[in-house]
């Protein structure tokens, strides 16, 4: 068997490559008939979602806003269609590496521009409402943490009531011992008894003041939890997110006031100041002992009482300062946010929506690479084969027809014979020659 194909000068492998290239060209030609329509559909879909994204950014819903959003979306659709049409035609056709690199860099820059002007708006249209709801849910968590922290500080401050009661009880016990004569040796209600009773009364008043704050703390915390429940309901309530955001903002303002109220209800600063005053402001009564020895005993006992008083005040103040040193609740403020901003801020939570928004704009890049590979395969199949050896039958017939027409044009036109004198009509009487 001969290793040459039926066409002279072409090996069997070259003939197969030519047929392979011709087959690919047929497929590309058929695909070219639908590529423009497909690219137009993708550009139109991207423009529609871009319009929805732009509309969510505009505050006004009038005619001017409609035309502004429509104009922007149309410009995006046209830009996407033209950009990818250029690349589908030019990038697969260039052969030099420098040209390919230049067009690939242009495609990268253009893709970034498309993402900047369209994809993020597409994502806002796809997941904007869900992103705003995510923002509301995140804000609820922040407010809940602040409310719980403020309540924890207030409850810890209310716990100082037990410390105050313990110190007050110790002074009452000492005063009882003084009344029976077991402390200074002088029974009755003398100078030492009056000092001890004075401090016990001060602590009893502080204890009552702390106790009066307890119902206020509980009421503020309960109302805060009720407000949080309403805010949580607004985050998952069906319907448009804009009116829900308005109600959410109102509840957020109310909750912020309750958190501030809880912070102000903390009695720790009050206890700290009272503990400081407990040892600093002592009104010493006049010693009433009948003898000098008795008065010296009273003076010694009062000095001991003042020393114990300073120790108890330091302990109480240390407990109050520990409550004051607790981390204050974070300042949480709800800030309304647009759907586009919400999608960008919480992009990590909406990766599928971002992927879809970007894919609808950059999917033609895959078609460009497919055409590049196909055109490279076509060129590889025709490599080493002359053009005259790759003509198809229809192309050969068309070429022969063109050659025939050119031969007809180049063929000289025969001269028209002129009439001879004998053939001219006779003049005179008008008689025709016989």
UniProtKB/TrEMBL annotation:
The chain crosses the membrane at residues 34-52, 64-87, 99-121, 354-373. Residues 409-434 are annotated as: Disordered. Keywords: Membrane, Transmembrane, Transmembrane helix. Residues 412-422 have a biased composition (Pro residues). This is Uncharacterized protein. It comes from Roseovarius nanhaiticus.
